[in-house]
Amino acid sequence: MGYNAYGECNVPQPNTGFTAIAAGGGYFSLGLKCKCAPVAPVILSQPANQMVTVGGAATFSVTANGIEPLSYFWLRNSTPIPGANGTNYTLSNVQLSDSGSKFSCLVSNACGTALSSNAGAEGH
Q1: d(CA 16, CA 8)
Q2: Based on the domain organization, do 55 and 87 belong to the same domain?
Q3: What totals of helices (H) and strands (E) does the chain contain, helices first?
């Protein structure tokens, strides 16, 4: 791995996900290489259907795991909802006309994407 008299090839803790690479010739440089495989997002908990009194609010939630940072994009009937970019989305003032709409969340990172299942909001 190279000259290591002073720990040049040792990665400081807690950086256990990296391998050190040392190069020399009068000067030493240290490069870090990730030794973990890229991980696309995985949906851990799906949004659930909501039964809401007309005028109330329906909140959909998703939990995902993967290499950070994760980005969240909520969709209504497969169309992006402007500004809905968190782990939760709240539909305010639910109306009877909202019944039948399907809400899902696209989660992405540099390694890929995952799409949640659909959930509905039904006003009654």
Answers
A1: 15
A2: yes
A3: 0, 12
